[in-house]
Design brief:
By secondary structure, the chain is α+β, with helices and mostly antiparallel strands. The chain has 7 helices and 10 strands. Helix content is 27%, strand content 35%.
């Protein structure tokens, strides 16, 4: 016999697949679902967690649960920036600068960017959204010596465009490592996730010229917001 949480999960999944609950539609509240299925809050939450894990719904802090929109298709082998990628897929992008500081930085970032001695790193933490939904938390490190004065720049737009326009940086190579990860604490809260929720983690190194490293990123994508798609040719 099917469990009560699976029955609720299947009912809501059918409502979504049939179009009765459309993209970005708000689901009934937990209390309403408890009453509708004569169930318990624990059972309802288990059903909602199943749907979230499958990428069918997402939560918004203090607002409830919503039907997940189409995913952003992303080719990790391409160098199209976030704003261009969103525009190509008819999505509205936005970026919020959470923090910016000049620090010594973690050992891994210093090693990747070949920073030695007393040289500092610029650390940026940004939250990126699509159509008003937070989908990406990123931590970016830049060598301060290469980007003098960048702290005074507008950091909520395309960093690629800013680096090219103001610092004559042309990104020629990228090294992307992608794995299933998890989000915690400030990152989880910013993305409206619970501690330990799964995410798609991307570690990115960007190079200019003859493979000179100029940017080191750690990205945390909401797993239901992105779809990897690789285009290969013979």
């Amino acid at each position: 016999m099917q469990s009560a949480s699976l029955e609720i999960r299947d009912y809501l999944a059918h409502q979504i697949s049939s179009g009765k609950l459309c993209v970005n539609a708000r689901l009934p509240s937990e209390r309403e679902l408890v009453e509708q299925f004569n169930s318990t809050r624990i059972t309802v939450r288990d059903a909602l967690s199943k749907l979230e894990s499958e990428g069918l719904i997402y939560r918004s802090n203090r607002r409830g649960w919503f039907v997940t929109p189409s995913r952003l298709e992303y080719d990790p082998s391409s160098r199209v920036n976030f704003y261009m990628l969103a525009a190509q897929q008819n999505k509205e992008p936005a970026t919020e600068l959470i923090s910016q500081r000049c620090i010594k930085g973690p050992a891994q970032a210093r090693k990747v960017l070949q920073v030695t001695g007393s040289d500092k790193l610029i650390e940026l933490k940004r939250l990126r959204s699509l159509d008003g939904r937070p989908v990406l938390y990123e931590v970016i490190y830049l060598p301060e010596a290469r980007f003098s004065g960048i702290a005074k720049k507008h950091m909520e737009g395309s960093l690629t465009t800013l680096m090219q326009r103001d610092y004559d940086v042309e990104i020629t190579h990228e090294d992307n490592r992608i794995k299933v990860s998890a989000v915690y604490d400030d990152v989880a809260e910013a993305l409206s996730h619970i501690n330990g929720a799964p995410c798609l983690g991307v570690e990115r190194i960007r190079f200019e010229g003859d493979r000179v490293p100029v940017e080191y990123d750690q990205e945390f994508w909401v797993h239901s917001a992105i779809e990897l798609r690789a285009f290969c040719s013979n």
